[in-house]
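Reopening this ticket.

The earlier resolution said the output was attached, but the attachment link was broken on my side. Pasting everything inline this time so it's all in one place.
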Amino acid sequence: MLVLGEPDQPCGWPQARNICITDNQALARYLIDAFVANMAWQDIGAPFAVEARQDQSSTGTHEMVSIFLHSPGCRCGSPSRCAAS
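Inline output:
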């Protein structure tokens, strides 16, 4: 799970409130290093929720609520921007 409390900052805790919870550290590190850490989202909109009821889920027994933030674009950044000051 990737939680981006500050999605416009391409760095993690403690420099930004961005965390990753995983059971596959090697895959998570690859994805973050290769993709997430080099992107900074622009013009982030207000959060909105999307609900999938039980009858809409693939299992038919689970309900899922997700929070999304719209961004019309992103720019490549540098992880060095997040060096501790």
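Reporter confirms the inline version is readable. The mean pLDDT is 79. The CA atoms of residues 49 and 69 lie 9 Å apart.
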